[in-house]
């Protein structure tokens, strides 16, 4: 996941030493909010280790998820101040915030497997659309999302960087029956 933050080149994080950023990211992924509260973390395992991760949440929970990073960066002296995340989601979507596969395991279908699992979680959270932002400088990721049925809905600025916002319609959410 640290690779994603590096590639995003967010100005708020550029002066933070790598070990301090990794410490905050690791702490965030250990919170209830990230694991199974407001957000969902899905992992892929191979050879007894985690080799891929997908992290997402319903867009209306973005502030709750972002507050975890704000709180953790406020508590870490390596940060000049709290991290100030920018809105990334679009209304009415389950947002895939991050997808990462260990470089040693790329090209083995792990990203596809993680993406294939997401509709279950989106429907569980009563969403019918999954959205994501893909770096225009990552054509491999763009092709994967396109092959999985995602379509570009327009540009998305995050920091000083332009991404393509993509969405996938997945159908009806899981219905809860109350007796």
UniProtKB/TrEMBL annotation:
PANTHER family: ACETYLTRANSFERASE, N-ACETYLTRANSFERASE YODP. SUPFAM superfamilies: Acyl-CoA N-acyltransferases (Nat). It holds the Pfam family Acetyltransf_1. Signal peptide: none annotated. GO terms for molecular function: acyltransferase activity, transferring groups other than amino-acyl groups. PROSITE patterns: GNAT. Residues 1-169 form the N-acetyltransferase domain. It comes from Levilactobacillus acidifarinae DSM 19394 = JCM 15949. InterPro entries: Acyl_CoA_acyltransferase, GNAT_dom, YpeA/RimI_acetyltransf. Keywords: Acyltransferase, Transferase. This is Acetyltransferase. The keyword Transferase applies.
